[in-house]
Amino acid sequence: GALCPELVRKLACNRWPCPDDCIVGRWWDAEPCSVSCGGGRQRQTRDVIGQDCSSAKEQVVNCNTWRCTGDGSSPVVPPPPSTQHDCIMGPWSQDGPCSVTCGVGSTTLSRTILRKGTRDGKACGVTSKVGPACVLPACPMAGSERDCAVSGWEDKGVCSTTCGAGLKSQVRRVERQPRRGGLPCPLQLSRVVPCRLGDCVAKSLDCLVGPWVSGVCTTSCGGGKLVRYRRVLQASLGGGKDCPALTETLDCNTDPCPAPVTPATTTPASNSNSN
């Protein structure tokens, strides 16, 4: 018999770009300045996330460098506002398996908020989004899903009569071609079926004929005969008036024919000189 198909195969996954190995946030004040004026020292820290990060997480900077008043305690100018902090978010990672167990589905990506933004700093973004498509082995198909599928019969045009029994055309269309050895599509996609639009109402109609059409006179003069005729345009129905005569014979060319012309005869001349 036929050999079994492959039972295991490898598919590509997690094809989105990897995040930077090292993510560094902004500096923010870890403790207040050592003095309120005249120049002091202050410790600052920042978030450093990821592998192989060599950036420093702490630093000491000068602070409150404005001149003090006479008593050495109050600053001449007000201190600047506190440092603003941006939101820091972790890298994107796949959250859960593929949305389907077979066929083509989708994945979900998520990330966490490592530190929320403060004051007027940069706000945090979304924490989840739709990831790339995931392709799993094809789903098995039921027998009915492999067969050809056609629509129901639909009327095409109207009934051939306005009353009584008639005929009308119907068509259907192929909605799905057969797959994987399913049943083929039927050959008949159109048919003619009976239709009925109610009983016809009987009514009386008189015969209707067309105009006279004349033939040719039998003679050109001296009186002859010609025959003229007309056609039936609508026969009488339901006791209507019968059709009149469709042919009749009439006199024609009644003028007398002219007398025939007799050619003149010549008499030979007598001989007056006789011996």
Explain the overall architecture.
It is a single chain. The chain is an all-beta fold. Helix content is 1%, strand content 30%. The protein is built from one helix and 20 strands. The longest helix has 4 residues. The protein is elongated. The protein starts with 21 loop residues before the first strand and ends in a 23-residue tail after the last strand. The mean pLDDT is 80.
Shape: elongated
H-E order: EEEEEEEEEEHEEEEEEEEEE
List the strand order in the largest sheet: 2-3-5
What is Rg?
56 Å
Unreliable sequence segments:
none
**Residue share in helices?**
under 10%
Which class of secondary structure composition applies to the elements?
mainly beta
Please work out how many helical segments DSSP would assign.
1
Distance from first to last alpha carbon: 149 Å
Got a strand count? Answer: 20
Provide the residue-averaged pLDDT.
Answer: 80
Fraction in beta strands: 25-35%
Largest sheet: 3 strands, antiparallel
Question: What attributes characterize this protein structure?
Answer:
single chain, 275 residues, mainly beta, three-stranded antiparallel beta sheet, 20 strands, 1% helix, 30% strand, elongated
Structure in a nutshell:
The protein is mainly β. It is built from one helix and 20 strands.
Give a topology summary:
Blueprint: E1 22-24, E2 28-29, E3 40-45, E4 48-50, E5 58-63, E6 88-89, E7 93-94, E8 104-110, E9 113-115, E10 128-135, H1 143-146, E11 149-150, E12 154-156, E13 165-171, E14 174-176, E15 190-196, E16 208-209, E17 213-214, E18 224-229, E19 232-234, E20 247-252
Antiparallel strand pairs: 1-4, 2-3, 3-5, 6-9, 7-8, 8-10, 11-14, 12-13, 13-15, 16-19, 17-18, 18-20
